[in-house]
Amino acid sequence: MPQITTLLFDCDNTLVLSEELAFAACAEIINGICKGQQVDKTFTGESLISEFVGQNFRGMLGSLQQRYGIKLTPEELEHYVTAEEDAVIAKIKAEGRPCVGVMDQLDKLQAEGKYKLAVVSSSAKRRVLASIEKVDQSKYFPEDDVFSAATSLPTPTSKPDPAIYIHSMKVLGKKAEECVAIEDSKSGTSSGFRAGIKVLGYTGPYPADKKAEMTQVLKDAGAVLVMDDWSEFPAALAKIEAM
């Protein structure tokens, strides 16, 4: 049985409660794009979450162009990607908080020293670093151990593409069977699963009436176990290690 040596954490709504803040900032920018192109569609942060959770902003703009006939030049797309990063980082720096209970688990993991810890996110690296710095998690994740599908790859992509997990394992010198990924979204879970990694799902930030549904969504996407609270993490990891 391969030994688990490495834990790969998603960032948004897994380590840091940033998803709602990010989508609120996204909605303002996307609504401006829609208005400028006479597209009769208005988004809220909540409606974007339901439609695009787990995708980064570049991925969202690609989907929007396909679904609603929005046309952006490559220069315009890069302009909006940068503007969104700036807006989200400002919101996170003002209001970002760690996910409930995660700091206790990270403290224990660091003290134990048994596992390599890294962050694997769809979001731009600049945003991920701002998020973990705001909530005092930089001490667990040095910058070289933070991987971004939007920034760290030769060609930017987004989960559910497994490329960022494959890249992070290559850089860290790890094999899929040595790793466990912790993910809160369908696209993130699919990304880890498609990279051959055992995925532990996490439903903590979802509303109470959505938790059962999301548990099933994450299992269907490939999660081997799903936890609702970080206090469940040690037992869940032990179960995965025994698989």
From TrEMBL:
Entry-linked NCBIfam families: HAD-SF-IA-v3 (TIGR01509)
SUPFAM superfamilies recorded: HAD-like (SSF56784)
Presence of the UniProt keyword Magnesium in the record: yes
Protein name: HAD superfamily hydrolase
Cofactor: Mg(2+)
The entry's keywords: Carbohydrate metabolism, Magnesium, Metal-binding
GO molecular function, one term: phosphatase activity
Record bears the keyword Metal-binding: yes
The organism's place on the tree of life at top rank: Eukaryota
Pfam family, one: HAD_2
